């Protein structure tokens, strides 16, 4: 079931995927709740939570402390995730939305990419860096590519994005498309190594 956060009976903010017993337990099995994170929202029913996260439900952290937080969202949580546009706090040079497609060809969600404007690296002796933000691949990606000048930083950011989008495993049977095609439209920036 594709639930939107707007249909949620309860919602709360969390820095990453986390379950709050004080919010979830009073809900009826069919009631939806939304967990709003900086990179997007997880939305599911209480029944979904009990079915797909039984270890969390039985855990001491959830039962006794009332809170269970994942260090990284597990792959199974991806079906409940709706990414926020990654360009909110990124001074983006470019951004693009890709489609996750399930085995039967049904839409399984969106993956959003933003490449930040090259900037001076604030680290000691830093050259240039370019931010790469990808939401919707299961776990959010927010990294920098570094180069000796703005062009190299941007080129390496494009290559980093291409690698993440090409090689990050998706749920079983899912694939990533752009404009309905498997070719994602991101050219290879780095050439083949010399032999």
Write up this protein.
By secondary structure, this protein is an alpha+beta fold. The protein is 21% helix and 33% strand. It contains five helices and twelve strands. Strands 7, 8, 9, 10, 11 and 12 form a six-stranded antiparallel β-sheet that branches. The model has no long low-confidence stretch (mean pLDDT 85).
SSE layout and pairings?
Layout lengths: L9 E4 L4 E3 H4 L7 E6 L2 E6 H7 L1 H5 L1 H6 L1 E3 L11 E3 L8 E10 L5 E10 L2 E2 L7 E8 L5 E7 L2 H18 L7 E3 L18
What would you call the structural class?
A: alpha+beta
Strand content: 25-35%
- Strand element count: 12
Determine the fraction of residues in helical runs and give it as a percent range: 10-25%
Determine the N-to-C terminus distance.
51 Å
In DSSP terms (H or I, runs of 4 or more residues), the helix count works out at 5
The total domain count is 2
The unreliable regions are none
Write out key terms for the chains shown.
6-stranded antiparallel β-sheet; 33% strand; 12 strands; 195 residues; 21% helix; globular
Structure, briefly:
It is built from 5 helices and 12 strands.
């Amino acid at each position: 079931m594709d639930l939107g956060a707007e249909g949620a009976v309860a919602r709360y903010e969390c820095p990453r995927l986390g379950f709050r017993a004080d919010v979830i337990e009073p809900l009826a099995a069919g009631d939806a709740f939304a967990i709003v994170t900086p990179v997007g929202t997880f939305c599911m029913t209480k029944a979904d939570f009990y079915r797909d996260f039984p270890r969390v439900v039985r855990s001491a952290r959830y039962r006794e402390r009332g809170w269970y937080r994942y260090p990284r969202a597990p792959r199974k949580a991806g079906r409940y995730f709706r990414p926020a546009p990654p360009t909110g706090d990124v001074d983006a040079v470019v951004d693009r939305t890709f489609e996750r497609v399930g085995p039967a060809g049904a839409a399984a969600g969106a993956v959003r990419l933003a490449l930040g404007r090259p900037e001076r690296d604030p680290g000691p002796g830093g050259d240039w860096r370019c931010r790469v933000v990808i939401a919707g691949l299961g776990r959010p990606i927010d990294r920098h590519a570094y180069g000796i000048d703005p062009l190299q930083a941007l080129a390496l950011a494009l290559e980093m994005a291409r690698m993440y989008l090409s090689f990050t495993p998706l749920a079983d049977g899912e694939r990533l498309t752009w404009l309905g095609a498997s070719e994602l439209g991101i050219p290879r920036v780095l050439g083949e190594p010399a032999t």
